[in-house]
Amino acid sequence: MSGYQDGRLRTRWRRATRLLVAAAAMSAGSLVLTATLTAGTANAAAGPVERAALAAPTVTSVTAGGAHTCAISTDGGLWCWGSNYGGQLGDGTTTNRSAPARVGTATWTNVDAGSGHTCAVRTDGTLWCWGSNFRGQLGDGTTTSRSAPVQVGTATTWARVDAGPSHTCGIRTDGTLWCWGFNRTTQLGVGASPYVANTPLQVGTATDWVSVSTGFGHTCGIRTGGTLWCWGSSSDGQLGLGNLAPQTAPAQVGTATGWTGVAAGYAHTCGVRSGALWCWGENGYGQLGVSGTYRTAPVQIGTVTTWSRIAASSDTSCASRTDGSVWCWGKNSAGQVGDGSTTHRSAPVQAGTATTWTGGLAVTDHGCGIRTDGGLWCWGDNSGGQLGDGTTVNRSTPGQVTLPA
């Protein structure tokens, strides 16, 4: 980090996260539910376990939290697993789960996991959040943590939501953008006040937001014209504005259009523009995909122009190409780059050898992705059971996770 105060905050945040996860694991243990980790395609001679895996639901989206994972199945069911110290799994307990467990019986269209909380949109357009709430990130008007979903306001027009470590943002069907939670570094985009917002606040008056991504102390979003906007902390240039000055409201990143995806990490950001991949901000682990120190403006990663999707959180980045391959780079201490090693990478390396990745892609200290057959695969840190394979053993290459039938 380039600032002493931000460096101390970062150290405390990471230490607190590790202690909470460790405490939860020691006190609650891991409850293993019925799930099967599969590593290939079943054939006609498959046994009962393999046949059960084939009958299990496939998934349409996935999100990776600090040490938990959630996914939506093709029937609209929501499943969560991993660390549960704040109730972020939404099952009414604070018990860790090393295999997927369904969250109620409702059907859902969008989900995103923060460090210790989760938010999701139901098929009726209502928004629900659960888990840690010490900074009002659940948006229910309180700072009380919840172990089961609570509705955020009464609106029925939510389209998508994105949860960061301690703040959350969502977009409604009318194109308006709303944020809530911690605002210490003006990451809510509504000015320096309030310090904490426990209900959603509209960000400006624009009605053309199409996507939003929440980092630790900053936020970025894309509008319908393909323009990119960022705000909040710029301690390492993560806003991409060419300087280290914070922004209390959305500021446009350059003048280019053609942005189709953006992902905010801890103190870095990556985006896809016209098929090219760009990153900026902190680069201590190589999470920008280039060598050297932090960058205050977008720098292109290589010359490939077939990038289709980007994911970033903590100090790791992943992206998929139109040929169906997935590539990751940055911090790799738990194998979250997925290349079979625990070596930090300052340039994209392929995660596994498959070229059938599509749809969802998510990464924090663990990564997950969806393949063309709807199968879900995860890798990296597994200290809270977030890989969903019934263990707490890290994995440096993708392994399949099967939802219970």
Walk me through this protein's architecture:
It contains 2 helices and 29 strands. With 405 residues, the chain is mainly beta. A hairpin with a 3-residue loop joins strand 6 and strand 7. The longest helix is centred in the N-terminal third of the chain and has 25 residues. The radius of gyration is 19 Å and the shape is globular.
In what order do the strands lie side by side in the largest sheet?
Answer: 1-5-4-3-2
Oligomeric state: single chain
Q: In percent terms, what proportion of residues is strand? A: 35-45%
Helix content: under 10%
Mean pLDDT: 89
What's the alpha carbon Rg, rounded to whole Å? Answer: 19 Å
Give a quick account of the main beta sheet: strands, pairing sense, barrel closure: 5 strands, mixed
Give the CA-based shape: globular
Regions with little confidence, pLDDT below 50 for 5+ residues? 1-54
- Number of helices, counting only DSSP H or I runs of 4 residues or more: 2
β-strand number = 29
First CA to last CA: what distance?
A: 45 Å
Which structural category fits the helices and strands? mainly beta
InterPro entries: Ran_GTPase-activating, RCC1/BLIP-II, Reg_chr_condens
Signal peptide: 1-44
Pfam families: RCC1, RCC1_2
Organism: Micromonospora aurantiaca (nom. illeg.)
